[in-house]
Backbone:
């Protein structure tokens, strides 16, 4: 089974590919307080929705770095819709490339050039949460904004949950420790929020529903059964342990 294809199908009806609500996303964008024409990059940008909203609000020049061919295509489609509005002064450019490779190229070509750097739910692309904080900070100008989305433990995870995830306790810390880590890296957190139980439920049920719908519409697909098994298995894990254990935070910080 192609994991990239599966993820694209599972997120087919998600506008934002993380459990933060649309309203909270807009609040975060407002909290960034960017100047008109700011330069912004999002690493692991998904469908590019947050960048598109930033471009609309601030007339920003935005760059989406996305490795997934399918997500990059969705991001280009969002950019095309953005450009259809002649009232929008901003732009959205898509770079289809591995995040680590893009970062290595960018850092070798000079100092910080962005007014804001983002990585929402994709910190694994640069190795870890700590490495991502440092990477985003190194790309943003002094006084610029660093925006991160990261999971955290709401309570100590059960051993069975960790085994089901293939994870360890050290993969996440707490919400408060996420904030402390960002502050310790030289970025002051000025705004933050967490996905509510309703946000999480909406995200997870939609994830499962998208796969179920695909399976119903494509009974002869070679990956149908494997996709159903993966989606249903994940949902069981969420319902049994995840709702009470795993959180997701969104953090806006100033370098």
Residues:
């Amino acid at each position: 089974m192609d994991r990239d294809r599966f993820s694209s199908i599972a997120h087919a009806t998600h506008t934002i590919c993380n459990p933060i609500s649309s309203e909270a996303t807009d609040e975060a964008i407002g909290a960034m307080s960017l100047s008109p024409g700011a330069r912004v990059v999002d690493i692991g940008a998904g469908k590019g929705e947050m960048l598109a909203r930033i471009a609309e609000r601030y007339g920003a020049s935005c760059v989406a770095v996305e490795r997934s061919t399918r997500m990059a295509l969705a991001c280009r489609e969002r950019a095309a819709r953005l450009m259809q509005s002649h009232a929008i002064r901003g732009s959205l450019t898509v770079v289809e490339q591995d995040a680590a490779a893009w970062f290595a190229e960018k850092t070798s070509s000079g100092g910080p050039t962005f007014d804001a750097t983002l990585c929402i739910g994709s910190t694994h692309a640069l190795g870890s949460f700590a490495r991502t904080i440092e990477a985003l900070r190194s790309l943003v100008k002094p006084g610029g904004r660093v925006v991160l989305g990261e999971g955290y433990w709401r309570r100590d995870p059960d051993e069975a949950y960790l085994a089901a995830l293939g994870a360890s306790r050290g993969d996440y810390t707490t919400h408060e420790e996420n904030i402390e880590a960002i502050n310790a890296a030289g970025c002051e957190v000025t705004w933050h929020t967490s996905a509510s139980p309703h946000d999480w439920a909406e995200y997870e049920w939609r994830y499962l529903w998208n796969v179920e719908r695909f399976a119903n519409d494509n009974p002869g697909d070679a990956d149908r059964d494997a996709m159903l098994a993966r989606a249903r298995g994940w949902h069981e894990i969420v319902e049994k342990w995840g709702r009470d254990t795993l959180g997701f935070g969104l953090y806006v910080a100033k370098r």
User: Anything to note?
Assistant: The mean pLDDT is 94.
